[in-house]
Structures are given as structure tokens and as C-alpha cells.
Amino acid sequence: MEFKGKTVIVTGAGKGIGREIVRMLVERDAQVVALTRSAADVETLRGEFGCRAIQVDLADADATREAAIAALPADLLINCAGTTELQPFLETTVEAFDRLVAVNTRAPMIVAQEYARSLIKEGRPGAIVNVSSVASFVGIPDHAAYCASKGGLDGLTRVMAKELAPHGIRANGVHPTVTLTPMAVKAWSDPEKAAGMMKRIPVGRFAEPADIAEVVLFLLSDQAAMVNGISMPVDGGYMIA
Ligand code: NDP
After folding, report:
1. Can you tell me the distance from the alpha carbon of 147 to that of 91, in angstroms, rounded to the nearest whole number?
2. Catalytic: 121?
């Protein structure tokens, strides 16, 4: 997969899967524009990878649009930022629901709008990968708002795939199972719950960030030129009925 000379926007670049994506892209001579929240991560992204890093809270729609515009021009886009809060369905609060939808669904839409508008204006092709989750296919207890937000993201991916492909811009979704990152610690630190999940993964392990990053990079690359609008599980077989 060739990314030399390409500029790639990566949201949620500070930690976990996003950071691994940045590492792999920089290794392949891409220029990365990282969007992330924590100031400390902005500094280490600049120091470790020499990338442009923009600090933004993606829960804030106006700030997100401003950051997306500041990140341009770019050849490729990965919407990787995501967040979760565990609440049983009956106790899911409107505030938590709105927060998760803002970060997991609305922010990818805003960033993709600005990215695609600039490419269309310049008559250049591109590709978008939205990092969703197996939680958009399966009802996971305590993840009502998260499942809903990722289901919404999948809807956006499919519409983008149809509306943007005539302009030469592909859009695809990647759906990780539990991946060993700070988010997984937050969601799966109960050993009993984690064991139940692990039992349903035929390969017998949780994913590493690199397992997900490789698939993201493939879908982003020209090797996937004919792949558009798919939802690709990266789940060790979890989705097999
Ligand atoms: P992490 O929590 O490890 O990292 C998420 C990154 O996104 C962090 O850099 C975080 O910054 C950033 N981010 C979160 N909220 C915001 C915000 N409001 N504004 C700006 N940046 C933000 O998550 P993962 O790497 O595990 O997850 C990456 C993606 O993969 C997410 O979309 C997630 O939903 C998805 N996923 C993860 C799975 C897992 O098991 N890990 C399973 C399935 C899907 P900061 O820390 O500064 O807030």
C-alpha cells in the first residue's frame, strides 16, 4: 500500500487505534494531520511522528468544522475518534446519548463534509474510512447510546458512498471487535464480561490496534479502488452466527 506524498487526516489520533494508524502511515511516508483532544497527545504526536496536530473537542460542532477546515488540503480521511459511556438502556441519559452521537456520528459527518467539499472543488479523488464497531450490528448490554451512534455512522457511510463516488471519493466502514486500547479498558475491565465476549471470538483473542489499522489502510488505499460502501468487520469471526 502506497501512501508516499499523501496527506491523511486522522481523527482520534492521540491514543489507541488512531495512534497506531498514524504510526503506520508515517512509516509509509504519508503526511498526517492529526485531530485529537488532549494537549499532551498533541505534543507527543508532533514530537514522535512529526505530524501536524490540531487540538479539538469533536463534541463541539463549530470547533469540529473549524478544525476540519484547518486540516485541509488533504488526500485521504480516517474518522477514527470515538467515545463510550456504559449505561444500561433504562438508565441511558439524554446527556450521554447526545455526547456519544456528537462525537461518534456528527463529528465524522462534519469532517467528511469539509474534506469532500474541498476535493470536489479541486476535482481531485479521495477515500474515507469511518471506524465504526461490531456494536452497530449487535446489541451489546450497557452500550445503547454507543450502538445507536455507530449505527448512525454506518448510515452516513453508505450515503457518502453513493453520493461521493461519482466525484471519485470512496467511503467505507471498519468494524472492530474489542481492541486492546484505553477505550477497551473502559468498556471491558470486568473480567466476567470480558470472558463472555472472548468466548464468542473464534480466533480466541481480542484485537490489537495494528489488526484494525492494517484493514483501515487497505480500504483507504488505491488497492481497494473498487471497494465502496462496505462495512468490514475486523472481529476474529465474532459476527459468524
Ligand atoms: P481510545 O479511547 O483508545 O482513543 C480514542 C481517541 O479519540 C483518543 O485519542 C481520544 O482523545 C479521541 N477522542 C475521543 N473523544 C474525542 C473528542 N470529543 N474530541 C477529540 N478527540 C476525541 O479509543 P480506541 O482507539 O479504542 O477507539 C478508536 C475507534 O475505534 C473509536 O471510534 C471506537 O469507537 C472504535 N472501536 C474501538 C473498539 C475497542 O474495543 N477499542 C471496538 C470497536 C470500535 P482523548 O483521549 O484526548 O479524549
Report:
1. 15
2. no
115 is known as an active-site residue: no
Residue ranges and CATH numbers for the domains of the chain are 7-230 (3.40.50.720)
User: Has residue 152 got a pLDDT over 80?
Assistant: yes
Q: Which atom of ligand 1 is nearest to the CA of 103?
A: 18
Mean pLDDT across 61-85: 98
> What is the reported pLDDT for 164?
98
Read off the amino acid at residue 55. Answer: Q
According to the model, what pLDDT value does residue 163 have? 98
Does the predicted interface ipTM exceed a cut of 0.90?
yes
* Residue with CA nearest ligand 1 atom 44: 133
Which residues does ligand 1 sit against, CB inside 6 Å?
A: 12, 14-18, 36-38, 41, 56-59, 80-83, 103, 131, 133, 176, 178-179, 181-184
Q: Which of 6, 15, 115, 150 is flagged as catalytic? A: 150
Long-range contacts of 20-24 (CB under 8 A, 24+ apart): 20/209, 20/210, 20/212, 20/213, 21/78, 21/80, 21/213, 21/216, 21/217, 22/49, 22/51, 23/49, 23/213, 24/210, 24/213, 24/214, 24/217
